[in-house]
Amino acid sequence: MPQLNCIDPREQVIEVTFDPGETILQAAHRAGVGGILAECGGGCSCATCHVILDGTWDGTIVEPSTQEVDMLSFAVNPTPHSRLACQVELSDKHDGLSLSVAKRQY
Questions:
Q1: pTM
Q2: 15/6 Cα distance (integer angstroms)
Q3: pLDDT tens column, 51-65
Q4: Do residues 43 and 62 lie in contact, with contact meaning Cβ atoms separated by under 8 Å?
Q5: How would you list the strands of the sheet with 13-17, edge to edge?
């Protein structure tokens, strides 16, 4: 089963298995990764599932939608690699993807 390497806000690395087709949010919540609030429940209407992807994965993940880019403007300290965990759908090619949960979600 493919997996993600999630670094939570306390700097702990948590290995998270996922099923292709799941979002980062779904996989991280199932695994109990802390720090992802997802106040809107994954509807891309808040910025409380802000994660920062490892830049070496650029080009392997679908670019953010206009709506996601707009929501990221409300995230605390967004970076060029910031994404909303609810909007990144995973596939087998993302096995080994590393990401950090934003230290502050609001």
A1: 0.96
A2: 6
A3: 999 999 999 999 999
A4: no
A5: 13-17, 3-7, 98-101, 50-53, 82-84
